[in-house]
Each structure stands twice: as C-alpha cells, then as structure tokens.
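Lab channel / #folding
Pinned by the channel admin:
"Please post every new chain as: sequence first, then the structure tokens as a reply. Keep commentary short and put observations after the output so the thread stays searchable."

First post following the new format, from NK:
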Amino acid sequence: MITYPFTYKRAKSVAEAETLLKATSESKLLAGGQTLIAAMKMRLANPPELIDISGIKELNYIRVGGGQVAIGAATIHYDVATSAEVAKAIPALAHLAGVIGDPAVRHKGTIGGSVANNDPAADYPAAVLALGATIKTNKRAIKADDFFTGMFSTALEDGEIITEIAFPIPEKAAYKKFANPASRYAMAGVFVAKFKDGIRVAATGAAPCVFRVPEMEAALAKNFTPDAVANIAVDASNMNSDLHGSAEYRANLVTVMAKRAVAEAA
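Reply from TO:
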C-alpha cells in the first residue's frame, strides 16, 4: 500500500500561520478543505505539511459599513448565506453563498479558501469579480481585476494569506447559475452588479477561469433589461468542454444565466 504522509499543524493566529509557512517551503494552508482535500485524495496535490487556519478567530467575521461588506477569510458559506446584514446589504451575495454545494460543504467551506483556490467552477469568484471586491492579505490589498490569473491560479505570492474580502455595495445585483445536478458546482454562473458608475458582469464555471463579459456590461449600461444581453454570444472557443457539457453549450448557458440574473436584479 502506497502512503502519502504529511504533517498537520493548527495555527492560532495569522502571525503563527505566517511563521509556519516560512518554515516549510511547500506547505499548504487548510481552511475548509473543500478543494485541497479532494485534490489530495485524487493525488493531484501532495503537500508535506498542512497548516490549518480554520480556527483563527480574527479571520471569522462579517462587518457591514462604509459602503461595503467585509468578510473574514475563515467565514464559512453558511454564515454568509444566513447573515441578516449581508442579506440586507447585498442580497445576491447571501443567495450565492446559499447555493454553494450542499449543506455539508456550506458548513465547512470558507470564502477565503474558495477565492484562494480559484476553482473554475466555484461560485464566489463570480461575486468577487462582478462586485469589484478587494482581496486583503497579510501583506497587501489586491483588486479583483488583478487577482484571478488562470485555472486554480491567482496573484497570491508565497507566504501570502487572505485575511478579508471587501465587497462594495451595489445598487442592484443578482447571481444565477446552472448547477451540475450531482456536485452542485456551476456549469455556468453569472453575477451581474449595477453601480452608480457602471455595470459589471462576471461568469464562472464555463471557462478555465472566472471572467468578465465587457459586451454585456456595455449593453446593460444603456439598457438594464434581459433583452439587452439576449443576443450577446460568448466565444465558445474559450469555454470548458467535458462529459457534462460542450463548450458551445456552456457558452449559451452564460447568455441564459445573464438574462436571468438581469431579470432578477431589475
């Protein structure tokens, strides 16, 4: 029997997590583990050390004020989904958190882990990008447009730990996704946000990385109705294709989900 041993350590503070990360070059942070543990089970990842940050109290909070919703990185999806403050400030964000995976995933997975792993089918990246959020780490603040760089890839550097996601509060917003019936991952999910100074549209699940749809943003800035995006086609050559759905199917889903999101937001 082949074994893949690793060391498990539990950090009590962000400072301690930083120290532990510096001690072992290939160590990985563990929050909810909904992506990392699955990767380890499939032998796609084999870190020599796991540093658990899920119990760090300074990373678990929801604060609304100053025109934004700030959420600590270790906050679980369930807490976001059931937060009265989030539901009042950005209803679409609470809704998104409530349709992530299943109850087990929502009670274990964290917002920081979802954003840091940037799974192509994850829901949170769509909200982060569409709302123009700021990802705060132990070292700096990163704008959403600069954060997601590719499949499972972000602008995070070695030793960098997400501490908070700060979401500007929009005038209107909505998130609609077509979920895989088994995993509940997004085959295509679209988050639409209307601000005083413009529209932002972001799609997840359909391509290797979350992306904005400039053509839809421009059309909605002139006419914020489902009809404005109904005939806007997304380039299928950039879409994912697998046994669950072809690239062309996913490209069409982006348009369909965008229409539904705009209808709900409007």
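NK: Residues 1-52 form a domain with the Uridine Diphospho-n-acetylenolpyruvylglucosamine Reductase; domain 2 fold (CATH 3.30.43.10).
TO: also worth noting, The first helix runs from residue 14 to 23.
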